[in-house]
Amino acid sequence: MWLLIQNESVSNSFHELTVELSTLLDIFPVTEFPNLSEDVKELVILIRKQCWEKKCFVDPTDKNLRYDVIKLLDQIKKEIIPDYSELLRVFGRLGLIGSGSCKEEIESLEDEVSNHNQVCEKSTVEIIALIGLVRYGKCVLFGASTPRYELASSSSFSEVVFPEDFKCPISLDLMKDPVVVATGQTYDRNSISHWIDSGHETCPKTGQNLVHMNLIPNKAMKNLIALWCRENKIPFESTEPNDKINMTTINKAAMEATRMTAVFLVDKLAASQLPETANRIIFELRVLSKTSSDNRACIAEAGAIPKLVQYLASENAQLQVNAVTTILNLSIFEGNKRKIMESAETLEGVIEVLRSGKTWEAKENAAATIFSLSALHEYRKKLWRKSRVVKGLVELAKSGPVSAKKDALVAILNLAGDRDAVGRLIEGGVVEMAVEVAEAVPEEAVAILATVAKRGGALAVAGAKGAVRKLAEVLRDGPETAKESAAAGLVSVCRRGGTEVLAQLVATPGIERTIWEVMGMGTMRARRKGASLLRILRRWSVAVEDQTAVAYSTNHVSTLSIVQT
């Protein structure tokens, strides 16, 4: 479709090329090449003649089809619902004859957005409008797509072998946002950012000094990874916000197409009777809500949230997953947070999925929804006061897979941002849980311990079995990203936990050397916390030596008195 819209400019470009080719052939000294056969010489003359005769040409059929597409976009822009038969005729001429071909066209257009973004805003706007048109036509003409779950289980996904070039040299995981550093090596943005923030000034792979710390997006690598994932039916979501579609450039036609699509799907959902039909419709809403804030706003305004609630309790596992994930996507838009929080049924439905969802994926996305809602301070208090929220997050963090643990822990970390919540979190067993899962997810677990300790729960952390030892071990052997939180947690606990805590810390092998390393190589905050920790330990050590000296002196005097007697 994008090529169709550009057909006149493309035709002009070809015409310019043929003129340039003709010019080159005019000055080409054919007579100076005696070894050329007569056939070749005749061919050169023939091409030269044809190049001069050719004029800019646009196929009338394509020209008419382009007009029909632009007419549909103009109708949508004016909030006029396109005629069904006309929409079907145009889509048929475009070769869009089913959900599959429409999906492929949308993916191709999204790739075009990636290529044009930051380069030509006008082109990006036009492509986004086409995406809206195709998505609307797909839903109206061919119905909602049948969801595919070839890789729904974590076990099947873990069996996929990624090409080595697509893996980050630091994390060894598939790169979501590849960037190039000063040495020319490519890393995933999150991994190399953590490396640099930890105080390193060298390239992890080559060991060379980085002459600058700029991270240059490797768009060619990202496109290759996205293409490979699509061909292998592997979901690929970039960590870069608004990666494919920059909605600041959205136009009226695209907005109206999205609104019409949302209204159509929500109306169909309200009328659906079969779980299979509802699942397909909710899956379409899930996909649509993943793209942008404007899409999320349109879906909520169409009344989707109340319609989704009943499916949170569905016995159909995939239907439940799609419903809670759609609510998660909608909650990302700040305006929708209020709609969800003010609907008791919606919030209770999400909490129930968190506690007793059919699959880990459903529970994980329910935890992510809690995290999203708790981003606003005014909603944190309402969430942490519900004991079922805290219990659900703690249970998920204890028994869920790693990805679910992380979602549960970051949600707890958000709730802990409210000082009044710390007491409820401690009562709910958050401290003991964090110690238990620190081996699997050290960064998130230690961050929770540090936050709880800082906000009034230092004695609870100090009294939890193994908490001080675990913080010390992470400070010594844990990942760089977790050491800062471990140092901060130990400072808070040591200041309020008494001599027993300090004795436990000192008993950790190599702790003083570890603190010196943090002070020399850690982040700025980690260095400050390391220095504070070292001062606390030294003051304690001096106090212990003084007490020992006093005790020795007292015992010595007593011994002399006995001898004299």
From TrEMBL:
<comment type="pathway">
    <text>Protein modification; protein ubiquitination.</text>
</comment>
<dbReference type="InterPro" id="IPR003613">
    <property type="entry name" value="Ubox_domain"/>
</dbReference>
<dbReference type="InterPro" id="IPR045210">
    <property type="entry name" value="RING-Ubox_PUB"/>
</dbReference>
<dbReference type="InterPro" id="IPR016024">
    <property type="entry name" value="ARM-type_fold"/>
</dbReference>
<dbReference type="InterPro" id="IPR058678">
    <property type="entry name" value="ARM_PUB"/>
</dbReference>
<dbReference type="Pfam" id="PF04564">
    <property type="entry name" value="U-box"/>
</dbReference>
<dbReference type="InterPro" id="IPR013083">
    <property type="entry name" value="Znf_RING/FYVE/PHD"/>
</dbReference>
<feature type="repeat" description="ARM">
    <location>
        <begin position="303"/>
        <end position="345"/>
    </location>
</feature>
<protein>
    <recommendedName>
        <fullName>RING-type E3 ubiquitin transferase</fullName>
        <ecNumber>2.3.2.27</ecNumber>
    </recommendedName>
</protein>
<dbReference type="GO" id="GO:0016567">
    <property type="term" value="P:protein ubiquitination"/>
</dbReference>
<dbReference type="InterPro" id="IPR011989">
    <property type="entry name" value="ARM-like"/>
</dbReference>
<keyword id="KW-0808">Transferase</keyword>
<dbReference type="Pfam" id="PF25598">
    <property type="entry name" value="ARM_PUB"/>
</dbReference>
<feature type="domain" description="U-box">
    <location>
        <begin position="161"/>
        <end position="235"/>
    </location>
</feature>
<keyword id="KW-0677">Repeat</keyword>
<dbReference type="InterPro" id="IPR000225">
    <property type="entry name" value="Armadillo"/>
</dbReference>
<dbReference type="GO" id="GO:0061630">
    <property type="term" value="F:ubiquitin protein ligase activity"/>
</dbReference>
<keyword id="KW-0833">Ubl conjugation pathway</keyword>
